[in-house]
């Protein structure tokens, strides 16, 4: 059926306005100078739980951030409803520069790197001494990621009641990595958490480890109440709380002694994103010896100047062996 007559004039025809409007787009964005500062505690299906002035606030990423994603540990700027009340939502408008980044890829052939945690000072690599058996190659890979991302490594060995730690300590002794040995009984009576807490004081520490090593059990012993408070808030807003470690979660230690970040259990730790030239920075006794290395030296070839540096007595040969073992871990799978 015709809406208009046979001889309609153009002026009689109704036209719809352009949905996008006629104003030209601008690249100028608001500065949000009045935005509040916060820290991302966890990320769950596009919703970010943040700590703002002691309150837990739910937020979402502003469109103006584009594809830039905020991760656990990020310092962010927020606007909107910051009351923290039920069913309120703030907006993250800025992600502050990061001081450190823990990254990994799904495997060594995957070019897409995933940022796991931001702004952590320390990486606690948790491994069981038995049940399951230690996986040194996975530990090596986590160490490389820590050195590359600017995190100080800490080795936490659990289940010492099932096997002694001597063999593993000997393997990593030349790397001068601080370590803590715990047993299941010590976890139950609290002795283990006290010793681990001494290594965490004043730091933001990310915990990594594969499933079954006791990582989340240890984190729960360190911060038993905080996990319930944060995950309970997520449950109230989304309707489905995640009380198992399926996403990273930042939790404060008591008396403002530091932060722990629990991460999901890992099956692999890909290093496709790692630049081997940055790993040498974790070996200050060897780094000066690279001055005479050939261009783009892998530090594991016949012309490497580190062999002469060690032969002259500037560093322990065991340190050079450890460096080369870590650098070679990209060519090996975790099960080797």
What does this structure look like?
This protein has 336 residues and is of the alpha/beta class. 23% of the residues lie in helices and 23% in strands. The protein has eight helices and 13 strands. It has helices spanning 136-149, 166-172, 184-189, 191-200, 215-222, 224-238, 306-311, 317-327, and strands spanning 36-44, 47-52, 55-61, 75-80, 90-95, 101-105, 113-118, 122-128, 152-158, 179-181, 203-208, 249-252, 258-262. The strands form three sheets. A six-stranded mixed β-sheet has the order 10-9-8-11-13-12. Strands 1-2-3-5-4 form a five-stranded mixed barrel. Helix 2 links the parallel strand 9 (152-158) and strand 10. The longest helix is centred in the last third of the chain and has 15 residues, at 224-238. Mean pLDDT is 83; it is low at 234-244.
